[in-house]
From TrEMBL:
GO molecular function, one term: acyltransferase activity
GO biological process: glycolipid biosynthetic process
Record-level GO cellular component terms: plasma membrane
Keywords: Acyltransferase, Cell inner membrane, Cell membrane, Membrane, Transferase, Transmembrane, Transmembrane helix
Protein name: Lysophospholipid acyltransferase family protein
Species per Swiss-Prot/TrEMBL record: Mucilaginibacter straminoryzae
C-alpha cells in the first residue's frame, strides 16, 4: 500500500514536471548530468566497457569524450521523455521533422503494410509518438513490458496518446494476425536484448557477437510486409529528423537472416557515425553464444 502511494506520488510529480517549458527542463538536464556522471557515476563501468569493446580502435581519450557526450545526451533524453507525457501534437511536429512521409503513403497505396525498425538511438520515444501524426492507418508499437506495474501503465498511456496500438512482445504474432486485414505501420525495436532462451541468432554488432530478435524478419515474411528503417538523427538540442529508409520490399524472396542483418547493420552504421546518441548504459551484451 505504501509502495503504491509513493508510486502515485512520483507519477504526479512527473506530470507536473512535464508541464515545464523545454528551456527550463534543459536547465534541469544540465544538473542531472552532473549528478549522473560525477556524483553517482550511474552505470559508468557498463558504459566504459561497452565503448571499449565496441571501439577498440579508438584511443582512451576518444572514448572518454564519447562517454561524456553520452551522459550529456542521456540527461537531455530523460527530461524530453518526461515532457512526452503532456506534449502537444503541434510541439511534436516542431521537434521531430519527418523527412519523407510520402514513402508511407506510396506503400499503403500499393496495399502493403509496413514494418519500421528503430534502435535505441536519438529520441526513439518521440519518434514513435510522431507516427500517430503522419498516417491514419493503424500504428502498432511492439514493446518490452516493464517489471513495475505502475511504470508500465504510465508508459503505455504515454506511448498511445496519439492513437498507437501497444502490443507486448510475447503477443506479437497473435495481434499481428488479428490485424492482418488492415493496412498498418508496425514499429519494432531493432536492438532489444532477447532473454537467454530466445537468443537463437547471434551476429557481429559493434565488434561483438550479439544476440538479436528475429521478430522483424519472421513477421515481415509471414505477412509480406515492407521493411524500412526509421533513421532518427539529433539535429540539435530538442530537434530531430526522421527519414524512412527502405530496406526490403519483397521479404518472401530474401534469404534466411537477410532481413535481420540488414536492419542490424544499418543501425550499427548510424551508431558509428555519431556514437554519443545510442543507449550505452543498456546492458546489451548480457551473454555470449555458447
Amino acid at each position: 500500500m505504501i509502495k503504491k502511494g509513493l508510486s502515485s506520488l512520483g507519477i504526479f510529480f512527473l506530470y507536473l514536471l512535464s508541464l515545464l517549458p523545454f528551456w527550463l527542463l534543459y536547465l534541469i538536464a544540465d544538473f542531472i548530468y552532473l549528478v549522473l556522471y560525477y556524483l553517482i557515476g550511474y552505470r559508468r563501468k557498463v558504459v566504459q566497457e561497452n565503448l571499449a569493446n565496441s571501439f577498440p580502435d579508438k584511443s582512451a581519450a576518444e572514448r572518454s569524450r564519447i562517454e561524456k557526450e553520452y551522459y550529456h545526451y542521456l540527461s537531455e533524453l530523460i527530461v524530453e521523455t518526461v515532457k512526452l507525457f503532456t506534449i502537444s501534437a503541434r510541439e511534436i511536429e516542431r521537434r521531430m521533422e519527418i523527412k519523407n512521409p510520402e514513402l508511407l503513403k506510396d506503400y499503403f497505396k500499393q496495399g502493403r503494410s509496413i514494418i519500421g525498425a528503430v534502435g535505441h538511438y536519438g529520441n526513439w520515444e518521440l519518434g514513435a509518438l510522431s507516427l500517430g501524426l503522419v498516417t491514419d492507418k493503424r500504428r502498432i508499437i511492439i514493446y518490452k513490458p516493464l517489471h513495475d506495474d505502475v511504470s508500465e501503465r504510465l508508459f503505455l498511456k504515454m506511448r498511445s496518446r496519439f492513437g498507437a496500438t501497444l502490443v507486448a512482445m510475447r503477443h506479437t504474432l497473435r495481434k499481428m494476425t488479428e490485424f492482418r486485414r488492415e493496412l498498418s505501420f508496425s514499429v519494432f525495436v531493432s536492438d532489444q536484448t532477447p532473454v537467454r532462451h530466445e537468443a537463437h541468432y547471434f551476429t557481429p554488432f559493434l565488434n561483438q557477437p550479439t544476440a538479436v530478435f528475429l521478430g522483424i524478419e519472421k513477421i515481415a515474411k509471414l505477412f509480406d510486409s515492407v521493411v524500412i528503417f526509421c533513421d532518427i538523427r539529433r539535429v540539435k538540442r530538442g530537434k530531430y529528423q526522421c527519414t524512412f529508409v527502405p530496406l526490403v520490399e519483397k521479404p518472401k524472396e530474401t534469404a534466411e537472416y537477410e532481413i535481420t542483418e540488414l536492419h542490424v547493420k544499418y543501425l550499427e552504421n548510424v551508431i558509428r557515425q555519431e556514437p554519443a546518441y545510442w543507449l550505452w548504459s543498456h546492458k546489451r551484451w548480457k551473454f555470449k553464444p555458447e
